[in-house]
Amino acid sequence: MNILQPVWIALLVAVPIVATGQPTVDVVKIGNGITQVDFAGEGTPDLIVSGHRENYNAHSFDVVSFYVPLQGNASKAKEWNIVPIKAKENEKWQVTVSGGADCMLHDFRLLAGHGKGAATLILADRGLGKSFASTAKVTFTYYSLVRNPDGLPGFPPYAFEQSRIAMAKAVYCDVREAFKRELGLGAR
Hints:
Layout: E1 5-6, E2 15-17, E3 25-27, E4 33-37, E5 46-53, E6 61-69, E7 80-82, E8 85-87, E9 90-92, E10 95-99, E11 104-113, E12 120-125, E13 136-147, E14 158-172, H1 175-183
Parallel strand pairs: 8-14
Antiparallel strand pairs: 1-13, 2-3, 3-11, 4-5, 5-6, 6-7, 6-10, 8-9, 10-11, 11-12, 12-13, 13-14
């Protein structure tokens, strides 16, 4: 039994996407800098921080992290808890968006269902292969936003917890194309 429970969300900023044969979902629009959106469903804005790491070549990348206000501190919103991304025993504090001039190898989408639906983070990854321009299967790793409502020791208040892994049916150079064709999800 998982002691962490799914969090129901109420997003303030989202763009609806409809794919044939799939339910309507919202892809949260995240630009460079700070995006404020209630992805934890607590009625107060949470933070998504996206920064760019310039390399002055085709291999610059973005680093994105997720934050919620400290519990009991929603009115001040000056202290923040990071929302980790948890897969088995591993825990990350950010996701990266990277690739080369030819193709993007790592990207993500933050989704919200209409009404009462759990927030989902989907990471898309493709191995380098022989080069950035290679094609290969893309791995989609799904994470559900969960919470620790009782404040159990050793667990964060919120986390994106790995829920499943799926492989793309076709091969792709760019994971953004895999998001579009396989999942019907456009740009973030």
